[in-house]
Design a protein that fits this description.
Strand content: 35-45%
Oligomer: single chain
Number of helices: 2
Shape: flat
Structural class: mainly beta
Length: 950
């Protein structure tokens, strides 16, 4: 039997035909079929392209779903530079079996990328980088793909209109991809392939081969990935004053990169694969990425293809993450080691998910230039632009080079959307990535139960200006729950049957900062309530019978207009009601006769009300009202079920389909696009809102079980806490004891830690934790539970430990080193130490409500080489006979005593008795001090007691 096999995977499938003569027979059959099956070309619709199309190649014809090899031509190797006069120059090559794979095309824009003109092509130029140097334009790359690729360079003195002949810098077998060059130490540096550099003096003639030096190759020997290692390639060179010049390759199949150090004196490279941080985590690092240093912010910025959790287990590409390229993200780092995702700027839901069609979309091989406060980005893009059947065979096979601008990149933040998924009993988070696309980021509400009960039928969702998110449960006895911006549960603020009557419905936030909630399904209880989020007080805002002859009948969506009025979609009365936004007084109706309006929202970009109306069962229209004008239909069709939520993001309209579990984006009155679907596990979508991101200074653990601190995916929106302006929050994500591991050799510095869960978090393993704050005072805030820190912990700043309740506890079970700093213990909880405790001249400060427990010295050692101070809580009165338990189990002190005791001054006739401090941990107030045991000295309002160390 002939071992021929036809793969259904797209992109050059005929190459998998093992038999030579059958391969040719197959190609001939494809050609014949193509004559009869060739689909007519369609006109391109450039409005489907996020960003600006620079170049386009029609995807190859196919027969039996297989691209015809002689027709295969795809866009590759995007590159961009900015000339001194502001002109943008971009380039790409063309690859595929239908091309010679040795040609690069060059383009120019004189209006910052808004439009482009083609300058022509360069034969004998491939895998190339355009760059400007000393006012002239150059292109550096390779002569062709394959075994005869020389390293070549050309020059243009007229912004790319004409070019010099190519100069061979190195002849032989070379290859690589575009990478922005770095100038450092008076040399210009390029990454060559994946593990070496090529450089020349900045003052030299770059067209002279003698100016250039090619380095040695770094070895990956000893890498820690074992059988998962598939090699490195397609590197980017980067450099800064603190890091020097570094080569960063992609690591095939793994979300990592490598830090290959360049010796700038010799021009060679070195790499120790066994060193700590030799292969730092980099989300999207398994694909070619672009990275540069920004001197203004002191940060590195990378553009990568992160793999969203929703796509990690893709049925086709789940085992090939290097081909999942549907998401473009901007990351930043201060040290090239710790990376965080700042925002998603490109996304498509259409990846290679169906082997029968083999069609997919992608944005990839990002290259960018810094233009003031913006990033000017080029992408190799595979996208459906209305070509009918001539779609890119797969995401890898690009039919476009597109231009994108990331504005104010140094301060860019994600734009989130929250959606109540009522049938699945959860709230989902998405990011607005680009026009008409929402990138799925997973479940918003962390954890499984809230105040003892699971979330049940969430319909309404709203966010107040402080970031807190409120969710309603639309059922009898339904609750209104409060979460923080990261999704941690905080409290139940109201319950039906207690603070109000009826089923909670939709939510909105008024100009006064209060929550407004519609209550429906009860005729006599159909009302609008106002909730003060500061006090949780619920008051009736608009009653059922709000005016003579007027009453609510199933009120749903609500919105405040920019005219100061309050609008309510009154479903069964077929109208939108208008009220005074301050008093709730009825003004009148608008949009009378609109059948069953439900969703209602305000579009602040276009100054209009958006709403849904049900024209017949299973048929929903989306409409708008530009106050005070009449209704205009924005979208009408017969394929949308109940729409309970509508929102505008930067003026782009999105709405939910409760019946089918979908989210749509408008394209035109007669057209829509499905941006999130049931394939992303939505079930029954309700209210949808704009939401602000959780502060980057508050990182929240989102893993529902144990995991590594170092893994950025364990934290909400990537990026673990690792700087002195960040707080690590351990909230409602878990419902059982959870281990957060800091492995041996790992160190993390944070401003503080916050514990919000009665379940125990254990910070564990053999790494180190440093507490250091940009404010000078680090914090550990225990709001609930008994929490353990089981790694060596050192204070680099003073530390405030606070407890919310008497049964809360924080336990240090490995070494705690005060490092000469103050440890303040506040609240009625307990701080316990069962590992080593050293002070190094530091101070423990008590408030009289909390205690310090010292446990078995066999687990460590106690060195009280510091001070104790008592600063009473304002609720404490210092009177005769008062006694304060500061330390429990002091018998483990092993004879150690504090260097000094600082106690508050007392009124006349009273004194401190500290004789029991080292036996039972108490101090008390007595009337007659005993000189034999007390040495009293008043200093600055304190009583200072000095004990000599034993």
């Amino acid at each position: 039997m002939c071992p021929c096999r036809l793969f259904t995977r797209p992109g050059g499938f005929y190459r998998h035909l093992a038999c030579h003569h059958h391969r040719w027979l197959f190609l001939i059959c494809l050609g014949v079929l193509n004559l009869f099956m060739r689909a007519p070309a369609s006109a391109q619709d450039w409005s489907l392209v996020p960003g600006v199309p620079i170049a386009y190649l029609e995807a190859p014809d196919r027969a039996l779903g297989v691209p015809l090899p002689w027709d295969e031509a795809y866009i590759g190797s995007p590159s961009i530079t900015i000339m001194p006069d502001g002109t943008y120059i971009a380039s790409h090559d063309v690859f595929g079996l239908g091309t010679p794979q040795n040609t690069t095309w060059v383009y120019r824009s004189t209006n910052q990328g808004q439009s482009w003109s083609q300058l022509g092509s360069l034969s004998g130029q491939f895998w190339s980088t355009v760059f400007q140097h000393n006012g002239d334009l150059y292109i550096w790359g390779y002569s062709e793909e394959g075994d005869n690729g020389d390293i070549v360079i050309r020059k243009s003195t007229n912004n790319g209109t004409s070019w010099s002949s190519p100069v061979v810098l190195k002849d032989g077998n070379y290859g690589g991809t575009p990478n922005t060059p770095v100038i450092n130490n008076n040399r210009i540096w390029f990454a060559q392939s994946g593990n070496r550099v090529m450089s020349a003096p900045v003052s030299s003639d770059l067209m002279d081969p003698a100016s250039w030096k090619l380095s040695n190759s770094a070895s990956d020997s000893g890498n820690p990935f074992g059988g998962a290692w598939q090699g490195w390639s397609e590197a980017q060179v980067v450099g800064s004053p603190s890091t020097g010049v570094v080569v960063m390759p992609k690591i095939r199949g793994l979300p990592n990169t490598a830090l290959i150090q360049v010796n700038e004196s010799t021009g060679n490279v070195s790499f120790d694969a066994s060193a700590i941080n030799a292969f730092p985590s980099l989300p999207g690092g398994e694909k070619k990425f672009g990275v540069q240093y920004d001197a203004t912010s002191g940060k590195f910025f990378a553009l990568t293809n992160v793999v969203l959790p929703a796509h990690a287990n893709d049925p086709v590409l789940g085992d090939e993450p290097e081909l999942i390229r549907n998401t473009g993200a901007m990351l930043s780092s201060k040290d090239l080691i710790n990376w965080e995702v700042e925002k998603i700027f490109l996304y498509t839901r259409n990846i290679d998910t169906d082997e029968s069609t083999g069609w997919g979309e992608a944005f990839q091989y990002f290259n960018y230039a810094i233009d003031g406060n913006d990033l000017a980005v080029v992408s190799r893009t595979a996208l459906d632009v209305g070509d009918g059947e001539n779609l890119p065979p797969r995401g890898h096979d690009s039919n476009l080079m597109t231009f994108h601008r990331i504005e104010d990149f140094r301060t860019a933040t994600p734009k989130f959307v929250l959606v109540a998924d009522a049938k699945a009993n959860r709230v989902m988070r998405y990011e607005y990535a680009n026009t008409k696309h929402l990138a799925p980021l997973g479940q918003f509400n962390l954890g499984a139960t809230y105040a003892g009960a699971a979330l049940d039928t969430p319909v309404g969702v709203a966010q107040t200006s402080d970031g807190d998110v409120f969710v309603t449960e639309s059922k009898t006895g339904g609750r209104v729950l409060r979460f923080d911006a990261a999704g941690n549960f905080k409290e139940v603020i109201a319950t039906s049957g207690t603070q109000f009557t009826g089923n909670p419905g939709m939510l909105t936030v008024g100009p006064d900062g209060n929550l407004y909630m519609s209550v429906a399904f009860g005729s006599s209880t159909d009302r609008i309530y106002k909730i003060d989020p500061d006090t949780n007080q619920v008051t009736l805002f608009i009653t059922t019978d709000f005016a003579a002859g007027e009453s609510f009948n199933n009120p749903r969506g609500m919105a405040f207009g920019d005219d100061g009025n309050f609008y309510v979609a009154d479903r069964e009365n077929d109208c939108i009601r208008k009220f005074n936004g301050s008093t709730g007084a009825y003004i009148g109706d608008i949009a009378v006769g609109q059948v069953k309006p439900q969703a209602l929202a305000w579009d602040d970009v276009n100054d209009r009300l958006l709403f849904s109306r049900e024209t017949s069962p299973g048929d929903t229209d989306i409409a708008r009202i530009n106050l005070p004008s009449s209704v205009l239909t924005l979208y009408t069709a017969t394929d949308i079920g109940w729409c309970l939520g509508v929102v505008a993001v930067d003026g782009q309209l999105f709405w939910t389909d409760y019946d089918n579990g979908e989210i749509y984006a408008s394209v035109s009155e007669a057209d829509k696009t499905k941006t999130v679907s049931a394939s992303n596990d939505l079930v029954g979508t309700a209210q949808i809102i704009n939401a602000t991101a959780p502060g980057r200074d508050n990182r929240t653990w989102q893993n529902s079980s144990s995991g590594d601190w170092a893994d950025p995916l364990n934290w909400v929106y990537w990026g673990r806490p690792d700087t002195n302006d960040e707080i690590a929050t351990f909230g409602s994500a878990t419902s059982a004891t959870t281990y957060v591991r800091i492995q041996a050799g790992e160190t993390f510095t944070v401003k503080g830690m916050r514990f919000m869960n009665s379940q125990r978090y254990i910070i564990d393993e053999d790494g180190e934790l440093f507490l250091e704050a940009d404010t000078g005072h680090a914090i550990i805030d225990v709001q609930d539970g008994s929490q353990w820190i089981r790694v060596n912990t050192t204070l680099n700043d003073h530390l405030d430990v606070t407890f919310a309740a008497a049964d809360d506890e924080l336990s240090f079970r490995d070494e705690l080193d005060l490092n000469g700093k103050y440890l303040y213990i506040d609240g009625e909880g307990k701080l316990s130490i069962s590992g080593a405790f050293v002070m190094h001249g530091g101070r423990v400060v008590f408030d009289g409500l909390s205690t310090l427990a010292i446990y078995s010295a066999s687990q460590g050692y106690i060195t009280l080489d510091g001070d104790l101070q008592f600063i009473p809580d304002p609720s404490i009165s210092l009177t005769l006979g008062s006694s304060f338990d500061l330390i429990s189990a002091p018998n483990y002190f092993g004879g150690e005593t504090f260097d000094n005791l600082y106690l508050p001054a007392l009124s006349g006739g009273l004194a401190w008795n500290t004789s029991s401090l080292y036996t039972n941990g108490t101090i008390s107030i007595v009337s007659n001090p005993e000189p034999a045991s007390l040495a009293l000295l008043a200093t600055s309002g304190l009583m200072f007691l000095h004990r000599r160390r034993r």
